[in-house]
Request: fold
Amino acid sequence: MEIVTPKCLGKREARKQDRRAAILAIAKRHFMEQGYVGVSMSAIAAELGGSKGTLWSYFASKEELFDACVDEVTREYREQVMQLLVPSDNLQATLCAFIRSLLRKVTSREAIQLHRVIHAEVERSPEMGEIFFRRGPQRTRELLAAHLQDAMHKGQLRAADPLKAAFALTSLCMGSQQRAMLGHQFSDAEIEDETDYIVDLFLRAFAPEPGAA
Amino acid sequence: MEIVTPKCLGKREARKQDRRAAILAIAKRHFMEQGYVGVSMSAIAAELGGSKGTLWSYFASKEELFDACVDEVTREYREQVMQLLVPSDNLQATLCAFIRSLLRKVTSREAIQLHRVIHAEVERSPEMGEIFFRRGPQRTRELLAAHLQDAMHKGQLRAADPLKAAFALTSLCMGSQQRAMLGHQFSDAEIEDETDYIVDLFLRAFAPEPGAA
DNA sequence: AGAAAATCGTACCCTATAGTACGGTTATGG
DNA sequence: CCATAACCGTACTATAGGGTACGATTTTCT
Reply:
């Protein structure tokens, strides 16, 4: 039976996995750069180097390949965004670092492309949007919320619903994302300015109330 | 009869304009609902009722027709959004009314579809995004900024760059738009809550400073 | 009425592209 | 060493869709 054999794969199996990964990598790049309709299976097969029959032996249709790509890209994206929050003892510094990273991330070319593709796909399968939202932006906000709640307990911020506060803080970055999605390229200086502005605004809005202990 | 015919067009010209408008109306609906690639010229011609030749006699290509549609839709959209700010003597009430309308607008089905289509088109013609941004969201912000500047002069808000403040206020609505673009349907109650939350947050962040005159 | 413009219906061309078929070839495993 | 699974190359099918051609017909202008 040998269930616990993580890798006692023969060369056959190994090669198949490599091949599948190679196909996914190529397809991912193409789909993210040119969208679903902009990419032909023939083009992918051509770059892959083999014959079209081989490609179809791994993915039975264009849709199946595309779905696999979206799965992987969203997973990677989420994992990257989740790492942006690095706690420190200074609240303002923590928030600045987080917002700076988040702004960089959401205005990056790859994020723009991913959002574009996702948005286009929500039409075809509406549940995908909800899935993406819950596993992407929502998780980030939950993580951030936990941190804000800490700060609230410490009296660094006024008491409030931490999830809504996190939603507000990240929403403040969405204006920039909108501009990015409409073609604007942000410079480092712009990111820096925007970061400071957002954090300052947030800290004012959630400043501890004078009367509180 | 001659009811002050602003345009002494013969029936020929009149009919041509009607026809053109009819084509645009049909094409607009199709493009907004199914995107550029999702619509075939044959389908538009079929719904129009005539022959394909006629369609091509009005618009020389699919791209030309599409561009005309985007022009019109963005113009309508902008005009509608520009009317959302109705000044009153109560700042909070004014902002609430504006934000409520804006949230409703940016989460509406038609706005979502428009943004989707625009986003998809930025790839093909990057300058379109910039044009849309300047004539759409940016104009709204300028209008709002003028109003905020008034409030700042009156001491209802602390002195600050009004355009950046307007950008922040509208950014706060973008989180909701993101959710809408990912498929979430907002209820009236959600809009109401979100409105109150955003305006409260904004007013806290831009509260007049204690030391000021 | 008669010329001119627009329209119609329909058949057609051309290209792109998803997906298939198949016979020959190479690598893998036992 | 041989059976077999994967692979290759290439040619092929089928369909969709943008765009054209053209003769017949209707509508409008003068």
Remarks:
- Chain A has two domains: 8-60, 70-205.
- Chain A is about 75% helix and 0% strand.
- Chain A touches chain B at residues 34-35, 37-38, 115-116, 118-120, 122-123, 126-130, 132-133, 137, 164, 167-168, 170-179, 181-184, 197-198, 201-202, 204-207 (CB under 8 Å).
